[in-house]
Amino acid sequence: MTPLIEVDGISKYFGQVIALKDISMSVDAGEVLCLLGDNGAGKSTLIKTLSGVHQHDEGRMLVEGEEVKFNSPRDALDRGIATVFQDLAMIPLMGISRNFFLGREPTKGVGPFKRYDAAHADRVTREEMRGMGIDIRDPSQPVGTLSGGERQSVAIARAVHFGAKVLILDEPTSALGVKQAAVVLRYIARTREQGIGVIFITHNVHHAFPVADRFTILRRGQSYGNFSKDEVTREEVASMMAGGEDMETLSAELAEFERTDAEEAGSAAGTPEPPEGRDPAGNTQEEERS
Ligand SMILES: Nc1ncnc2c1ncn2[C@@H]1O[C@H](COP(=O)(O)OP(=O)(O)OP(=O)(O)O)[C@@H](O)[C@H]1O
Ligand SMILES: [Mg+2]
Predict the structure, then answer these.
(1) 163 and 100 in one domain?
(2) Is there an atom of ligand 1 within 6 Å of 41 CB?
(3) Tell me, what DSSP letter sits at residue 136?
(4) What average pLDDT does the structure give for the chain?
């Protein structure tokens, strides 16, 4: 299968800053790719390149097998690559259906009698949201009164309705509580069912695991590579995000501290040996390992 979108050895520089170095990844139809990485890892830079905001300096970008170089977000949209940015670009005081059709308002009548077709907008918005499992009572309800999760859902439904083949979501769950995040994750899964390729950016491993088919993990502008879900554990992903080596060095140092601590405690007069399976602090070794 030809991937919907693919980058091959992409690099991006901002003057002296190497924001991305030699990144390769691809997304197929009906698949969720999770792009993970800590602050400053290069996640936003990568998706801005995919969505036409930035141009890459090295490497190749392909859409459905054809090499492309986008000059603007419009170019990306024309190829079916829709991005939902974190601020969502919605108008809080306007209704759900008005926001749904923002910039693409349906009209009825001709010439001077042309006007906004509210009935059509309301009907389509309601249908699209229902298709995603959300019942809207009143399509004219101001978007500002919706919960964060519902607002994200409107933005996703809008992108899908207007023909996205690839849907890019930049940290859609980062500002949400557990329940609202679950709403958005369920929505991402529904989008995948429609055969759309989803790139889901997050730095929360627990949000990534329930929906991801594959992972790309970035660290300081470089990639740890691409993994399918059955290849890695949650712990391994978290450790890579934090820079695996740093973590290993740190835990080795901590272990050394604990050992000398235990020796000192043990050699102190009258101090009984810790019971088996326990260190002097009373932690079981089971706890220590986690
Ligand atoms: N326009 C720019 N000019 C100069 N440097 C930039 C620019 N955009 C990003 N960078 C740098 O590139 C690196 C990657 O930034 P990026 O925003 O892609 O990270 P991120 O993974 O999205 O982080 P976060 O989780 O904080 O959003 C950072 O060091 C950042 O300072
Ligand atoms: Mg970012």
Answers:
(1) yes
(2) yes
(3) -
(4) 84
